[in-house]
Amino acid sequence: MRQYSVTGMSCAACAARVEKAVNSVPGVDSCSVNLLTNSMGVEGAAGDSDIIKAVTDAGYGARPKAKGNDAGSRQAVEDELSDRETPVLRKRLIASIVFLIPLLYLSMGHMMWEWPLPPFYDDNHVAMGLTQLVLTGIIMVINQKFFINGIRSLIHRAPNMDALVALGSSAAFLWSLFVLFAMTRASADGNSDLVMDYMMDFYFESAAMILTLITVGKMLEARSKGRTTDALKGLMKLSPKTATLVREGTEVRVPVEEVRAGDIFVVRPGENIPVDGVVTEGISAVNESALTGESIPVDKEAGDNVSAATVNVSGFLKCRAVRVGEDTTLSQIIRMVSDAAATKAPIAKIADKVSGVFVPLVILAALITFAVWMLLGENIGTALTRAIAVLVISCPCALGLATPVAIMVGNGVGAKNGILFKTAVSLEETGKAEIVVLDKTGTITAGEPIVTDIIPSDGTSEEELMILALSLESKSEHPLARAVINKASELKVEGREVSAFTALPGNGLTARIGDKLLYGGKPDFIRSKVEITKETEDKAAALSEEGKTPLFFAEDGRLAGIIAVSDVIKEDSPGAVKELKELGLKVVMLTGDNERTARAIGKKAGVDEIIAGVLPDGKEQEIRSLQERGRTVMVGDGINDAPALTRADIGIAIGAGTDVAIDAADIVLMKSRLMDVPAAIRLSRQTLKNIHGNLFWAFFYNVIGIPLAAGVFIPFTGWKLNPMFAAAAMSLSSFFVVTNALRLNLFDIYGGKEKAGPEGRSKNEASAEPAEISKTLTIEGMMCEHCEMTVRNALMSIDGVRSADVSHEKNRAVVLLSHDIPDDILSSAVEAKDYHVTGIA
Fold it and tell me: Which of 439, 567, 572, 676 is catalytic?
């Protein structure tokens, strides 16, 4: 998608006009114009010159948005995002008020409340009229932009909001000018009674007040609109400006634009990492909250990846640059957020259709209002007043801003929490999901098998079994071998050198130590070499039922024991599944694993349905079938998930997954936490709710306001609307819509409630609902990761437990509770699994 900056737009009618003009250009496949950011996204083969010409011919200006990662391009992008409109409008407003105050004093203060005037004006009503004319003229010159843009839009036969303001203000001014000429003639004729009558027909103050009040609204709107892009501006400011490279053994500080892939750079404590890279030397903790929203620093050592804009907290790191410029993770995030802002949500089409014909219909309504009141016998001043009120109360801006401001703020909230929506469509549609499909490996589980159980046979110790297993597995390239090697390293066990090593694909391993023959692998393979007792077979079956893979090891014709390996479930998976179900969604687990393993994992996670044994090319077909039952979201991380992510109504990629999966997805979760899936759905639903509220206000305001201004209610209720109050209402309508959208910043996407004040809750909310509670359990008896998982699952099964952080090394579990849970319930759940709770704090 190519992006352009568009100038000259003032309301939804302008955006609709630009969109229609560009869509008519040959070679343009689609075009979406964003009034909020004054930007345009275009897809297709049409050239820049043709697109810019179409915009220019429509009466507006356009230029391609800045690209690249050099200092000039970055500064250009930051300039585009900066709020340059508010300072200009503030100066216009101050100047307008300076001249409006004496105008109101003359026209209303003296006439209505008999405030004193200089002797020069005593009985000199023509002089008062001339003074009002001059003051109003000055205010019209100060706010000439309304007239320039309005007249231009009328010339191009595409009237916009500025045209309504210009017509309303001009009508009041010209009528007052006509009255002033008539008064001058009556004064020359000595007809003092007629002069006094004419004094009551001046509307100079209305013409000036309309312009001033709408400038007030425009300034408030611009200021609020500036705040909606805070998230994107914040991301831009994170980009480091310099890097310290190592060249020929010497450290050299250079602009970050000069860093190339393969360069070696160093980062000291407290410094930002300049580009994406790989640690080659050093150990440190890195704060990645700028990208992921996760405040806890992540430990880094040689071989680990680091990202631009993250902060080195403690140690010294030497790294090799891998991705620079526009390829860094930060640049990709900025691009995603920016592209999402340039796209248009489907719900916006309703407002677009109305905005395209809104202003001409309002002008027609004003003419009808004038004609009807004249036919009813009212004087021209009254009829004109009501026609002007119709013109200035109508607000197409509120319609045009209703959707994009909410989309922009919603995208910003997501980005701050590590949830990146690629398009406005994905932000709108995610909340409509009915089924969530979760890939197992890497999504529900960690994707890295670990040893969960070590079960030696009689006459063999755990250490001897691990030495035997390590001696065999250290020669293997199988993924499960890595789990055994890591466990041996953790236990500080060293293997022995083997000879005659042979890997038998699909069965196991054989090798020799001296004259002893070693075997390792599947039960069927080992059963053909040694005898396996019924008791051992039962233990292996029980492990399989738990979703673990039992590896058998034998030495010199005798079974040495079993080591169970499992891809353990992620800590937050059960909680995330529970929250998805609470949101009314059906949760399905999709995996290529066998039925037994899949059911074991699915049971721990708490999913509603399990689809197992699915080949990579079959996942896409399963998504098709599920879509027949409802709107489907697919969550995955691997290359084999890409077709399913593309097929699903919404694809969500885990950030730690493959580039192919991320490219295929509509949403990317930077923190790689499954808990962000329900958070994304909550945010989508809240954003859609906000859009509905904005659209309701925009339509309701105009449906009620226009008839009120036209005087429709006068025969029934006597309600009338002065053009000045109509202008005030118009100026505040857009401000209301933008301010309502900014409330999304207060929404807690993890708790589903709106935060208020510095504590995130209002006083009433805080008293009605207690804040999240943390408790720490001291537990004895935990020996390994399997114990941790057992305790964690036991605690997560309790209603009200939000999360459980369990450590067998520290003999403790830290639980976060949505409400207070008695200590005996927590301890009973743990002790039911044969562990002992010694204290709860």
Answer: 439
Q: Where are the strands (E) in 239-353, listed by range?
A: 242-247, 250-255, 264-267, 276-281, 284-287, 298-300, 305-306, 311-312, 317-323
Sequence-separated contacts (24+) of 478-483 with Cβ below 8 Å: 478/503, 479/449, 480/449, 480/549, 480/551, 480/565, 482/449, 483/448, 483/449, 483/450, 483/451, 483/565
CA distance readout (Å), 279 to 362, 486, 656:
64, 21, 17
pLDDT level of residue 769 (50, 70, 90 thresholds): very low
- The one-letter code for the residue type at 315 is G
Calpha distance 249→234 (Å, rounded): 35
Report the pLDDT value the prediction gives residue 770, as an integer from 0 to 100: 42
Question: What is the rounded distance in angstroms from the CA atom of residue 369 to the CA atom of residue 373?
Answer: 6
**pLDDT surpasses 70 at 658:** no
- Least confidently predicted of 219-228, 236-245, 273-282: 219-228
Of 103-107, 188-192, 338-342, 607-611, the poorest mean pLDDT is in 338-342
Q: What is the DSSP letter of 379?
A: -
- Cβ distance 495 to 509 under 8 Å? no
Q: Find, among 23, 5, 12, 6, the residue nearest to 59 by Cα.
A: 6
Q: Residue 473: pLDDT band by 50, 70, 90 thresholds? A: confident
Residue of 679, 634, 640, 631 lying closest to 653 (CA atoms): 634
Q: In sequence order, what DSSP letters do the residues of 593-620 get, joined into one string?
A: S-HHHHHHHHHHHT-SEEE-S--GGGHH
Confidence label for 578 from pLDDT (cuts 50, 70 and 90): very high
| 756 pLDDT tier (thresholds 50, 70, 90) | very low
Contact between residue 336 and residue 1 where contact means Cβ atoms under 8 Å apart: no
Largest pairwise CA distance in the chain: 135
788, two tokens: 């941790």
- Quick one: which of 218, 216, 131, 217 has its CA closest to 180? 131
327 assigned to active site: no
Q: Is 375 exposed, middle or buried (0-12, 13-18, 19+ CB in 10 A)?
A: exposed
pLDDT tens by residue, 524-553: 888 888 888 888 888 888 888 877 888 899
For residue 65, the one-letter residue type is K
What percentage of the chain has pLDDT greater than the value 90?
17
Q: Which residues are within 8 A (CB) of 176 and not within 5 positions of it... i.e. 6 or more apart?
A: 132, 133, 136, 201, 202, 203, 204, 207
CB 473 within 8 A of CB 485: yes
